[in-house]
Amino acid sequence: MDQTPAQLLSQSQNKSGSVLIIAPYASYRLTPFIAAARNLGANIIVASAGPPVPSMADVKGVHIDFQKTDETIETLMEISRTEKTNAVIGTDDVSVLLANKLAARLKLPHNDNRAILATRKKDLARELLSGGGIKIPEFCRLDLDRPLAEQLHAITYPCVVKPVNLSMSRGVIRANDVDELISACARIETILLNESKNDPSRVLLVESFIEGQEIALEAILYNGVLTVLAIFDKPDLMDGPFFEETYYTTPSRLTPKQQSAIIKTTSDACQAMGLREGPVHAECRVNADGVWMLELAARTIGGMCSKLFEFATGQKLETVVINHALNNKDEWDKKNKKPAIPDKNEAAGVMMIPTTKAGILRRVEGLSAANKVKNIDEVLISVREGYELIPLPEGASYLGFIFATAANPALVEKALRAAYAKLEIVVAPLWKGSVVA
């Protein structure tokens, strides 16, 4: 139940310290972080724009306003002093900057605020990465408040245009010529109109399209040292026009030399952006010219994909992150600064079920058959019937997730594709202005 700061402070009984988790309303990352903190025996406080999702008695909640940063930090400082907060976690992009500012005030592990801001602003990140000598696409900015025609002369094609402040591939569109670019900009502008309350930015980033295999890297920084937790291959080529992610498999099938190059590029990118502490999620492309850094976030992997980390290693990703925030040095090898993660010697993968049709979800057929596919661990549908489905580039959610483990990544990929082929997504048209029963 949501509580005022006064109520929360009056109920404080904790003597050993607390984990403060800052999350946007209804964040899917919140529950795993709460579970991890509970398993570590920590007192838990959730700061959110809405009531915490779980209603367990050991989770205390406080309502905050993400738009009133200074006021919110003072509120959380008051709570943190009384609750003896010794770890602050920002679960999502929208909460990481606030969490970092609070951690700095509390003298807990944190990053420079400009580094965190750069993970939220793609154009600022490009500037810092370029200045650090990191291989990135050629880029420029487009200002939607100025005539586009006068800003397009130096752009080469194909290119990719994207908002500077959105995530999950929302508004990311490939353009093969100037007409496609103008059309893409108009489409993104409509998306941004619906986001104006959260961020009024009307600047777009245009960058050259980089061919090659895309990978994701999950890591954690401890006093500037990058420890890689997993490298995920994305078996499907992501050539556009939109860039919805589907398959992730680990361990990577890239060569050891390529993987070393990915790790070095990510480490160098963190240094260029000024990141020194906490979780890192990187997105790269690999081709004959080397490793290209596309995105670098100061948070864990999105969606329910953190579960893939658990399938592969036997340990929860959120536990690793909270142990870092708690500065639990016993969980780190003192010489190599490596987390104590068991190696299951097993491949794992996830298929993020894409939203391919707009409309109202009626049902998902074939779940039983999909679950029976060899090496499939779980098929999870996270969207309820009656929910409006919105595909990319406007949409920002998946229908669900398919998880698999096997002896090697090729078998994992085969199982995921076979299970997805068993599913039939039944979608009804959405008639605007009508009431859907």
Descriptors:
Rossmann fold, 30% helix, 20 strands, Dna Ligase, domain 1, 27% strand, D-amino Acid Aminotransferase, Chain A, domain 1, alpha+beta, 437 residues
- CATH superfamily placement of the largest domain: ATP-grasp fold, B domain
Name the poorly predicted regions. Answer: 1-16
Indicate the CATH topology of the largest domain: D-amino Acid Aminotransferase, Chain A, domain 1
What's the mean pLDDT score? 87
Structural write-up:
- By secondary structure, this protein is of the alpha+beta class.
- The chain folds into 4 domains: 2-108, Rossmann fold (3-Layer(aba) Sandwich); 114-130 and 213-345, D-amino Acid Aminotransferase, Chain A, domain 1; 138-208, Dna Ligase, domain 1; 346-437, Glycinamide Ribonucleotide Synthetase, Chain A, domain 4 (Alpha-Beta Complex), CATH 3.90.600.
- The chain is built from 12 helices and 20 strands.
- The protein has helices at residues 5-10, 30-39, 69-83, 93-105, 113-120, 122-131, 178-193, 256-273, 306-313, 317-325, 367-371, 409-422; strands at residues 2-3, 18-23, 43-48, 59-63, 85-90, 139-143, 159-163, 173-175, 203-208, 213-222, 225-233, 247-250, 278-287, 290-297, 347-353, 359-365, 376-381, 388-389, 400-406, 424-428.
- The strands form 5 sheets. The chain has a 5-stranded parallel β-sheet with strand order 1-4-3-2-5, sandwiched between helices.
- It is globular, with a radius of gyration of 22 Å.
Helix and strand topology:
Layout: E1 2-3, H1 5-10, E2 18-23, H2 30-39, E3 43-48, E4 59-63, H3 69-83, E5 85-90, H4 93-105, H5 113-120, H6 122-131, E6 139-143, E7 159-163, E8 173-175, H7 178-193, E9 203-208, E10 213-222, E11 225-233, E12 247-250, H8 256-273, E13 278-287, E14 290-297, H9 306-313, H10 317-325, E15 347-353, E16 359-365, H11 367-371, E17 376-381, E18 388-389, E19 400-406, H12 409-422, E20 424-428
Parallel strand pairs: 1-4, 2-3, 2-5, 3-4
Antiparallel strand pairs: 6-9, 7-8, 7-9, 10-11, 10-13, 12-15, 13-14, 15-19, 16-18, 16-20, 17-19
Helix pairs in contact: 3-4, 4-5, 5-6
